[in-house]
Amino acid sequence: GAGFYLRADLEGKDDYYVSDSHNVQAPSFNLLHMRLGYSTNSWSLSLWGRNLTDEDYFVKGFSFGNDPRKGYANESYFQYGEPRIVGVSASYTF
After folding, report:
1. For position 22, what pLDDT does the model report?
2. Which of 8, 15, 25, 54 has the greatest number of C-beta atoms within 10 Å?
3. Cα–Cα distance between 79 and 18 in angstroms, integer?
4. What is d(CA 58, CA 19) in angstroms, rounded to the nearest whole number?
5. Backbone dihedral region of 8: left (phi > 0), alpha (psi from -120 to 50 degrees) or beta?
6. 24 Cβ neighbours under 8 A, 6+ residues apart
7. Which stretches of the chain drop beneath a pLDDT of 50?
8. What pLDDT is recorded for position 77?
9. 28, 48, 75, 78 from 59: Cα distances, Å
10. Looking at residue 17, what is its pLDDT?
11. 3-state SS string over 41-63?
12. pLDDT of residue 76
């Protein structure tokens, strides 16, 4: 059948060690994702958003010596996750 729908996802992660070779931890985070749409048997249209609270969070981390000016002392490097992203999706089935 046809109708509107709303989907909400809460994604969370507690603080964790980014590697077993050092004691660097990434902090905990909570992300909110939502999708509001309308669908029929043949088409659908939705407005969606990921990380709606625009949380800064880490998805990967490293710790190693990379700078000769600092005597190659271990430093932490982190890769951030995606910022707030919103979009529109449409599909048609024939």
Report:
1. 72
2. 25
3. 11
4. 13
5. beta
6. 17, 18, 61, 63, 76
7. none
8. 86
9. 11, 22, 17, 8
10. 84
11. CCEEEEEEEECCCCCCCEEEEEE
12. 82
